[in-house]
Design a protein that fits this description.
By secondary structure, the chain is α/β, with parallel strands linked by helices. 41% of the residues lie in helices and 17% in strands. The protein has helices at 11-22, 38-48, 62-72, 86-91, 93-113, 148-166, 200-208, 236-252, 269-280, 304-310, 318-331, and strands at 2-6, 26-31, 54-56, 76-79, 118-124, 171-177, 179-181, 215-218, 230-231, 233-235, 255-261, 267-268, 286-289, 298-299. A seven-stranded parallel sheet has the order 3-2-1-4-5-6-11, sandwiched between helices. Helix 3 packs parallel to helix 5 (93-113). The structure holds nicotinamide-adenine-dinucleotide and uridine-5'-diphosphate.
């Protein structure tokens, strides 16, 4: 299948490009580099070992997106293109609603014009807010978001639901990602956060390499096994493979379906620090500080539906996640910048 990866120069998109190209799909990437670097595309080309079309454009620019569809005629779209920093979304809500919703609406309009009927969307476990119970099933209540970023994901799910109801030819797969970490085993591509990382794993890696002095652990008084927050960390290559399964599912089913992509295992912040130190033989100094506003105690997936209907499950271990994060960080201390 010919697949457009919208926002495919980013962390998850670049890994997905590799996994689906490996399976024989033809890929096209479009990105405006608002949160990624051209070097990521060069490295994806190196890993795949062959060229593919790349378009530098804003997905919300309808004329440019039409020109891409005219030239490439993709049969499916994986939609990663959006802003994703929770804290920034609180400071700049309009920019988040504008970009994340506009990219989606423009894609839907142009896909329809060009008879492209398969859409995979990067949603997030954040739509569950503070869950009533863990592990979280896809049927859990959604829409108790605590920040504009989360609301954009929720709103886009609602938009896609309406679009699939109205257009019986459309196939939509919503993938609710849990916490992607790790990197491609080559160490050529990985997560390259701009400025101070918001997420735990890149922060741990930057402490280990000496870029930051100490990890602040946000609270040790949660009702969890050691008091620190528990999350479902999933290797980005496992997550990437989930998109390959979603493409097959979309090709075989009309309508809309939602899947959790997680391992179903919850690890605490201190578990992650210990695992990273042991896997890589490095020290990660940390101090306990106040809770981060908006954080929840526990969040991990029930991934049964993905296993049963997508035929997908996560295979990589916590050691793989820690080793591959460190391999990327230590080979690229400044990310994609030389
Ligand atoms: P990322 O920022 O690395 O990748 C997103 C890419 O989209 C970037 O390359 C950015 O330049 C591009 N982009 C943004 N707006 C664009 C626009 N208008 N036109 C063209 N390109 C645009 O993020 P990621 O971690 O790879 O996440 C991919 C998707 O998955 C995002 O939608 C994100 O919200 C979602 N998601 C991520 C996580 C996570 O923890 N990384 C968790 C759940 C969901
Ligand atoms: N966390 C932390 N210090 C950091 C970053 C994160 O203690 O510098 C904790 C956070 O409170 C949460 C877990 O690590 O319990 C995962 O946080 P992240 O931001 O990576 O993911 P999210 O909270 O969005 O699931």
């Amino acid at each position: 299948m010919k697949v457009l990866l919208a926002g495919g120069a980013g962390y998850i998109g670049s890994h997905t490009a590799i996994e689906i190209a490996k399976l024989g799909h033809d890929i096209v990437i479009a990105d405006d580099f608002s949160n990624s670097k051209p070097e990521a595309i060069n490295r994806v080309r190196t890993i795949i070992g062959k060229d593919f079309p790349f378009y530098e454009l804003d997905i919300a620019d309808k004329e440019k997106l039409r020109a891409l569809f005219e030239a490439e005629k993709p049969e499916a779209v994986i939609h990663f293109a959006g802003y994703k920093a929770v804290g920034e979304s609180v400071a700049k809500p309009i920019a988040y609603y504008r970009n994340n919703l506009d990219t989606t609406l423009t894609l839907l309009e142009v896909m329809k014009e060009y008879d492209c009927h398969n859409l995979i969307f990067s949603s997030s476990a954040t739509v569950y807010g503070a869950p009533d119970e863990v592990p979280i099933k896809e049927t859990a209540v959604v829409g108790r978001c605590t920040n504009p970023y989360g609301w954009t994901k929720y709103m886009i799910e609602v938009i896609l639901d309406g679009a699939a109801f109205a257009d019986k030819e459309l196939s939509v797969v919503l993938l609710r990602y849990f916490n992607p970490v790790g990197a491609h085993e080559s160490g050529l591509i990985g997560e390259d956060p701009q400025g101070i990382p918001n997420n735990l794993m890149p922060f741990i890696s930057q402490v280990a390499i000496g870029k930051r002095e100490c990890l602040s652990v946000f609270g040790n008084d949660y009702d969890t096994k050691d008091g620190t927050g528990v999350r479902d960390y999933i290797h980005v290559v496992d997550l990437a493979n989930g998109h390959a399964c979603a493409l097959n599912y979309a090709a075989a089913h009309k309508g809309i379906e939602v899947f959790n992509l997680g391992t179903s295992i919850g690890y605490s912040v201190l578990d992650m620090v210990k695992a990273f130190e042991e896997a890589n033989g490095v020290k990660v100094p940390y101090k306990i500080v106040d809770r981060r506003p908006g954080d929840i105690a526990e969040c991990y997936a029930d991934a049964t539906k993905s296993r049963e209907l997508l035929g997908w499950k996560a295979n990589k271990t916590l050691v793989d996640m820690c080793r591959d994060s460190w391999n990327w960080q230590s080979k690229n201390p400044n990310g994609y910048d030389a």
